[in-house]
Amino acid sequence: MRDSGVSLSLEVGVRAWSGLLGVLGMLEPHERQALLQLARRAIAARLEGRPVETPAAVGGLARRTGAFVTIRHNNRLRGCLGSVDGDAPLVDIVAQCAGDAATRDPRFPPLPLDDLPEVVLEISVLGPIEPVADPATIEMGRHGLVVEQGTHRGLLLPQVPTEWGWDRDTFISETCVKAGLAPDAWRTGVRVFTFEADVFGE
Question: I need a surface site. Which of 60, 106, 120, 138 has the fewest CB within 10 A?
Answer without folding.
Answer: 106
